[in-house]
Specification:
The protein is of the alpha+beta class. It starts with a helix and ends with a helix. The chain binds ligand MTE and molybdenum atom.
Length: about 350
């Protein structure tokens, strides 16, 4: 038997019953949404399983979606079979194909850009569209799987096979990246691609959603250090330009990373300048002039840097001048730019998740 014939047989054998295919797709969308979202909060290598699950399940998704599209294609290509729900189904299929295509192309390191969106941002956009479309689509065509659709042993074996196929495809993709030294070859475990060089010009300016303030007048700039500290204080740019240095890796969830030499003031020293933490101080909140904000546990915050310089140059406006947070190994979106207030608090700040999405809209 030819290799193609054998591969065809394997693919046919792995095909679950239609309703199992449908519910698997639903489950895969959920798994990919959760792992995709969680992966954005992970900046340490120990978090690798999240990225692996996302990639392997994504490749399994390609196969399962293939079965589905082959099965239902005549419902779209044959106008006589059109119903009211056909446009929604077609749109859902497009979003699914868009998500998978951008995901697969991304791992090979292709860096196509739609204005300032990286391919990874477009991937996230398609994924979010899918998150809305899939429940609507399921609602129009709701059919529960029956017991005979899920014969225990066969289904379990098929699932194991699909998982294996996803894992093999993942290894194969890595090998291809290696063999042809594609730009995808030197991605970090987070999937991000390197931006080489040092200083402001070496890496992109990235705003999350709508944040885009006007330049801040350095002479008029004041940094408030307040909250649970012995003597709240207000500092000038000179006070913040203390020359404390740190080499740190900034890894943006839009898919790039850079290693830079940052300098400014250690946050622990900032808190000492305000008399030190008091009472049940446990968190430090960094607030931008735009309202964008993030909090770190106080021990972690003490070792973070409020930077005024990168690569020996004063920060440019786009990179957060006069002062921005440098918080390794946190992901880039937590490195608040244009910081004007450092607030010591007793509690964390869950609302920060929402604020990063809506700050800048006014
Ligand atoms: N105030 C504020 N800080 C911000 C952002 C923002 O939109 N507003 N974007 C964040 C994101 S998503 C990243 S990756 C880094 C990017 O820093 P850079 O623009 O200096 O590369 O800043 C973070 N800090
Ligand atoms: Mo980012």
């Amino acid at each position: 038997m030819s290799i193609r014939g054998a591969l065809g047989d394997a693919v046919a054998w792995l095909e679950p019953r239609p309703r199992v295919v449908d519910w698997s797709l639903f489950a895969l969308v959920l798994v990919e949404t959760v792992t995709g979202f969680v992966s954005f909060t992970v900046g340490i290598p120990a978090g690798w399983p999240v990225f692996w699950v996302h990639r392997i399940a994504g490749l399994g998704f390609v196969l399962v979606l293939g079965y589905k599209l082959v099965r239902v294609r005549s419902r779209v290509t044959n106008a006589e079979k059109w119903t009211r729900s056909t446009p929604l189904s077609a749109l859902t299929a497009l979003a699914a194909l868009g998500t998978l295509a951008t995901g697969v192309v991304w791992v090979f390191g292709l860096d196509v850009r739609l204005s300032y969106w990286t391919l990874l941002s477009v991937h996230v956009g398609f994924g979010l569209a899918l998150l809305v479309l899939v429940p609507l689509h399921v609602a129009t065509r709701f059919r529960l799987p029956r017991t005979r659709d899920v014969e225990g042993r066969r289904t379990a074996l098929q699932y194991a096979g699909l998982l294996l196929a996803g894992a093999l495809a993942y290894r194969f993709q890595e090998a291809l990246n290696n063999l042809f030294s594609t730009p995808g070859d030197d991605r970090r475990f987070t999937g991000s691609q390197p931006r080489e060089g040092s200083g402001n010009a070496a890496f992109p300016i990235t705003m999350w959603v709508a944040d885009d303030p006007g330049p801040i007048d350095t002479d008029a700039y004041r940094l408030e250090v307040t909250g649970l500290v012995a003597s709240p204080t207000t500092l000038s740019v000179e006070d913040v330009t203390a020359g404390d240095e740190m080499t740190a890796l900034l890894d943006c969830t839009s898919g790039w990373y850079t290693v830079q030499e940052w300098s400014g003031v250690r946050v622990g020293d900032l808190l000492e300048a305000a008399g030190g933490p008091t009472g049940d101080a446990a968190w430090v909140r960094f607030v931008s002039v735009t309202g964008y904000r993030w909090s770190l546990p106080i021990e972690e915050a003490a070792d973070a840097l409020l930077a005024t310089h990168v690569g020996g140059e004063p920060l440019t406006h786009g990179h957060g001048a006069p002062a921005r947070l440098v918080a390794p190994p946190r992901r880039g979106f937590q490195w608040v730019k244009w910081v004007t207030r450092v607030e010591v608090r007793s509690r964390n700040d869950p609302a920060q998740w929402l604020v990063t999405l809506v700050s800048g809209f006014d």
